[in-house]
Design a protein that fits this description.
This protein has seven helices and ten strands. It is an alpha/beta fold and about 230 residues long. A six-stranded mixed beta sheet has the order 6-7-8-3-9-10, with helices on both faces. A four-stranded antiparallel beta sheet has the order 2-1-4-5, covered by helices on one side. The chain starts with a strand and ends in a 7-residue tail after the last strand.
Amino acid sequence: MITLKGVSKVYPDGTVGLKNIHLRIEPGEFASMVGKSGSGKTTLAKLLIAEEHPSHGVIEVGGWDITRIRQRDVPLLRRQIGVIFQDFKLLSSRTVFENIAFALQVAGAPPAHIRTVVPQLLEIVNLKEKAHKYPVQLSGGEAQRVAIARALVHRPKVIVADEPTGNLDAINTEEIMDILRRINKFGTTILLITHNREIVNRLGKRVIVLEDGEVVSDVKHGKYRL
């Protein structure tokens, strides 16, 4: 589902983000990518969603080579990859329903489709009663659940979750992880990027450890021991 072949990223100032990464994440897999600040986790996430391009190597998502993706094709890529960020990135002037609907509107979805899909997504993240609330009226956990619903609008094959619980307390963190586990059970590939040792160890799934831009450990049922 996700394949990186000899991927490196060197920034114009000479800073090395990633060094010769070889990695494959299988369809339907739930993998955690961990490492200290500056290890390359966020750089890899940006490459996967074509926010940045690799200096060397090949990146494939769903069999599609995105190494030198054209800018006009990026929106199509991002319909296949749902992205969840630490800071939610919700539109403050729009309701919960409208925030989710907006992702469909910009893709040209017809109103009837939007009216059908958005309530289904709100049901998945248990927020139907919050449909007409604004982001300022939500807790951090609720805001992140809206972000998850928005990431699911195009039924992506892959979810990249970059520190999705970084701003949340323990209770909300567990709610978010439960939703991600349920999404994974539906067959969606999940790549969780996090520094939260407790989350990773409780999952008991694949753990990929980055250090100074390199993969230093990749264990099928591992723990985060750094």
